[in-house]
Amino acid sequence: MLDFQSEKRIVKDYYQALDAADDVGITDVLLKFTAKDYIWRAFHPFNIQTEAKSVSSIFWKPFRNSVRHLQRRMDVFFAGKNFIDDRESVWVCSMGHLMGLFDNPWLGIQPTGKLVMLRYAEFHKIENGKIAETAFYFDIPHLMIQAGYDPFKSPTAMHLVQPGPTTHDALLFKDAPASEGQKTMDVMHAMISDLGTWQSGLPLEEELARTWHNDMSWWGPAGIGATYTIERYAKQHSGPFRAAFTERSGTGHIARIAEGHYSGFFGWPNFVAKPSAGFMGLPPSNKLCEFRVIDIYRREGEKLKENWVFIDMLHFFKQQRVDILANLQEGFK
Question: Disulfide engineering: 106 pairs with which of 24, 66, 82, 166, CB 3.0-4.6 Å?
Answer without folding.
Answer: 66
